[in-house]
Structure formats: C-alpha cells, structure tokens
Amino acid sequence: MPKTIQASMLATACCLTLGASATVAQAQGRADTKPKVVTSAPSLNFYGVPGIVDLPSGEALPDGQLAIGVSNFGGQTRTNLTFQFSPRISATFRYIGIQDWNSDGFDTYRDRSFDVRYLLFKEGRYRPSVTVGLQDFAGTGIYAAEYIAATKNFKRPFRLPGKLKVTAGLGWGRLGTLGDIGSLSGGTRPVFNPNDTGGEPATDQWFRGPVSPFAGIEWQVNDRLGLKAEYSTDAYQPETSRGVFDRDSRLNFGAEYQVNNNLRVGGYWLYGSEIGINAQLQFNPKTAPAPYTIAGPRPIIVRPSRRANPAAYDTAWASAQSAPMVIRDAVEPELTENGIRLETLSVTGTRAEARVSSIRYDNHAIVVGRTARTLARILPPSVETIDITLMNNGLALSTVTISRSDFESLEFQPDAADLLLSKAVISDAAPRPAPNAVVVDNIHPRFGWSIGPYFRPSYFDPDEPLRYDAGIAAEARYRFAPGWLVAGEVRHRVTGTIGDSTRLSNSVLPRVRTDAVLFAQGADTTIENLYVSKQWKPGKSTYARVTAGYLEQMFGGVSAELLWKPTGNRLALGVEANYARQRDFDQAFGFQDYSIATGHVSAYYEFGRGYYGQVDVGRYLAGDYGATFTVEREFNNGWRVGGFFTLTDVSAEDFGEGSFDKGINITIPVSWFIGRPTRQSVSTTIRPIQRDGGARLNVPGRLYQQVRDGHINDLTGDWGRVWE
Questions:
Q1: Is the domain covering 446-479+483-714 a CATH 3.30.70 domain?
Q2: Which pLDDT score, from 0 to 100, does residue 197 have?
C-alpha cells in the first residue's frame, strides 16, 4: 500500500536541493577561478555510509551531517539518506530497486531498510577510528549484515602526494558470505525470503554465523581526485542465483571526483563484471548556504545618571491616566517595524511589561533583544525593570526580566551575551497580563489567507515508486479573540497519479490509513481541514487546547489537550483525548460509519545540546493500544531531524508489511537557505510503509512544539543573537 506523505515533502526536497545548490554556488566563486575544495567529511560507499566502494569504513561523518547518496551497478539502484545524529551515532534509511529479479513474482524487487552505526573510538595518533554497524537491521533482511571496521589515515604515504586511508574489518551476514574464517560467535543465519513482511529487528542473528575479514584502501591524490580498491566478502547470493548479475571477482576498484565541498561523484569496476556509478551529496544543517542577514538594530539610548538629572527619575508621570496609552502608541510602531507584534503593555513608575509575539523572527533571543532596545529608547528614565513576555497564538510562554541598567552597560562588553544572560531572569509567564495593561487596538480580530500550488507525493508503491497529486490550495485563518482560531484549507487537484494505483488495502485492521488511494480517488476539490480551536493557560506552568472540526484529510472530530511544562524544567507531561470519525472519501462535509475514541499520555524530555525525547502511550485510530517512541535533534537555527517507532498490541502478521510503524521526521526552517528571517518552515514525515496499526490522529496545533520554543533551553540555545 503506498504511503501518502504530506504535501510538504516536495518542498523539503526543494529546500535540500536549493540549499546545496546555493552552497555549491558560493564555493565556486568567480567564474574564472577554480577554488580549492575543503571538506573533512569521509566519502560514502554504495550503501550511503562512510566507506570504500561496497564496504564500510571505521569513520564517522561530521556531527550533524546529512548525506544523500544514489548508486547503481548490476541493475541495482540504492537511494540512501544518512544523518549523523550525534558525534558517535548515525542512522541511514535506504530504498532499493533490483531489476531482472526473475523469480518470487517480482520483475523489479523493491525494498526499504535501516542502518545504524556507532563510533567506538575516534582516530588518534596511533589508533585507528573504529566503528560497529548494523546494516538492514529492521527490514526484510536482503542486505542484513553486521560489521566492525577500523580505518587509519596516513598523510603523504611513501612520499606520495595526498592522503591514504586503510580500512580493515570483520563482517557477518552479507559481509560474511565469502572467505569466512569460521563462526566466531556461533549460530546460523536464515536464508533471505523476499516475501517476508520484514520490519522486525532480528536481534538473535546479530553478529552470529560465519565471519569474514575484509579490507580496502582509499588514496586521496589531491583535493579532488580519489582512488579506491577493496576486497569484498559479499557473495551476492540472492542476486547471482536469480541472474541479476554475474560475480566474477572479489575485488572492486573506483575513481571519485570531488566536484565541490558538497558533491562527489564516482565511477567503478565491481566484482569483475559490472560498471557502477555513485553520487554523494553532503551538507550540514549547522552551516547555512546563505549567511543570515537582518537589518541592524537601532542604538541603545543610555539614560542620564540619577545624580546628573534627578528630576528625570521622578515617577509622577505614572499617575497620569493616559500615560500607558501614550507609551504604547510610541512603542508599537517601532516594534512593528522590527518585525515584532506588541500585544499588551503595562507600566508603572519603575517597571514595564511588554507581551510580544514574533511576526518575522524564528529566534526568540532576537525578539527579546529588539524589544528591550525599543523599550529602553522610549520608556521614561524611572523605569528600571523590563519584563518581556514571549507570546505564541495567545499562549504566554515565558517572561524574560532584564535590568535596564545592565542592558545599557553591557552591549559592548566582551562576552556581552553571556553577561546579560547571567543577570537576566527567565521565569514562567503569568497566564494573563497585569490588570493595568493596555491592549494594542489591531491585535484582534485578525484575518489572513494564502493561495498557491500544492504537491502531495506518494512513495514506495512497488508498481510506481513515485506517485503524486498536484494542484491549487487556498488557506484562511481568522483570530477573532485571544487564543481563538478558525482555520481551513481547500484544495483542487489539477493532475495526479495517486488515484491510479490498483493496490487497494488488504488490511485486517480497521482501514484508518490504508485507504489512501480511495481518498485520492474521492474528488478533485476537497476540504483538507476546517476547524475551530481555543488554547489558553489555566496556570503559570499549564497549557490547554480544544480543537473541533475536520482535523485532517481522513478524520474529523474533537480533540482536547492539557500540557504541564514549567519554563525551566526539562520534563513536560501531557494528556490528550480525542473523539474521531472517519470522513467520506470525497473529503467534503460527510462522514463514514467508523468512529473511535483515542487518547495518549505523553512525556517529553530535553536531554540538552538540542536532543529531545518523547513517549506517547495510549490508544490509536485502529483501536490498538501501545506506545510511540521519538528521538529528535534540533539545531539552533531551527533544523530538526528525528526518528520514531510505534509498538502496539497488533501482531506483526496483522500489521502487515513492515511489522510496525516507524519513520523519520524532518523540519527545515526556510530562513536557513534564503538567508533572511522568516518564521516559515517545511516539515515532512517519511515512513517506509503506512499501515493501520499505530496510526495516530493528526491534530493541528499540538501544544508542546508551540510552547518549548519559548522556554529556557530553546531561548538560551542561541542567546548570543540577543544583541542583533
């Protein structure tokens, strides 16, 4: 059953491609100059991981690196996505197509698989880097293997130019099918079955069965040209036995060319019979292709000292009834010019609170800094304490309290950002503004709309790996009071192929997701969603939301959520309850007979350094009970990459292909590749297969992601930008 990925998948691909292209353009410089390539990333093998040609190496990618690799030889195409999740841990998702698979009912055999690698030792002066890896550990197992690989770099070997890498290792599974030296760990490996549903980690097979030594070398002749040779221990028994290609040698050779810092291409002679090609695109979310530029802030106006002008510090002005309105009318235009929306302002003789939300910036430290500058420029000198409360869709996230004297004196000090942070206080925001606060007149009601193209891809259909729907989408949002939102999106399909699929659901569970083809066939003009929501703060550390309407493409209903998340606490707890009913296939206003009550209890934890974990336990749309486990990494610039898996009381046999739900989440801030501030981002979820088990209702505006961005860890993660 094909998986329909969200409409943003194409935009995600465009972001990656445009970002990499921009980086390429920067690297190329003037047309008449060919710059030196400077890259510290190891080259990738045909599986998209650090390696030689078809074998792995002991190296790791730079921390945070994303790598996309496409390789082909002998009728086999592998498309790989690798992410260096931490300095030692990396993960890979792979989609393959093997042509001329002339048995088992396949003309072209297609499969998905996952790898994980762990760097045991970093390279030292005398010690090689050592990595242990699991290859295809949660798929059907066609490429299932385990390995330990060690790699050592030598500069100017034998007085030759460049650098030499030498790799040696031990392989099990696919990498232990030729030249084995016995079965060091005991046990046997089962024969690959292409009709297996796959998806379950075969822990009882890891590092068991025959083990074979492998080796290879890579000579980086100069900054662009690399030569490779390896001794492979993969017999390719499933392929050669089916006539996919002939394997006549254990040796592989290749030459690679580093086009620029991001792109590397290569040609190869493999297994004595085949020509292969490989293209590798690498980039790092921490390094934007375009520099982030914003207009400089206005200067801070330092007040006269109290001794020099004691009259300026008189608080009598605060007794005037019009004073808050006068100050508001002076502050609001300057904040708006800076891309910040002033919502309320309260002032006394010595203290002021501004509740603000960001129109333009995806960085809250910039919002704090520019709001403080504006207030320091305009407030009477007697106001010493400034409270800046960050708002998001009616929710007060946190309050940053700054001494005006500190703000005035620290701007040009060494380590000014750290000094200001040490003196500032970040606390839970009160649910409502002070009683004397004045409201900005044009905050509510607010109406916004947009119209433009949409693209919804569907991946991994064995008959046609890429299907799509494309057309025009119109969206409207109306905020008529604090915390209230009415929103909806209508789509009209102009062209598409998702509905052409003949692979209808064979699920034995309630078909809550696997009828995607029928939804695609339902109508050309559809209501993607149409709902009303209310969110508010019951207390300083609690947040609440109620949403009702047509919540997503396949379901409508009512959803209620309560979240406990103190500003300075790494832990957050939430509970969500939903009543959902399946929509008609035409996605108009009608419903089908199927309905269900679902809900989850959730725990969220910030591990630090941008790592987050989440566990959701409860009931899913098909009536199954279980838990979803999510791990994610967020970079200071807003990039987020993570993975998840769901285990429920549905057996692997009843779930079907894939055995259990799992996937990858990616969010890319638009500002990363355009170099200008914007709050827009592109998000997608990539699943190897979408089935009915472990399917959760998609509710717009869940609270945790809205809230955490304005709390201590996210706010201070890029605090250095407070002076921008």
A1: no
A2: 62
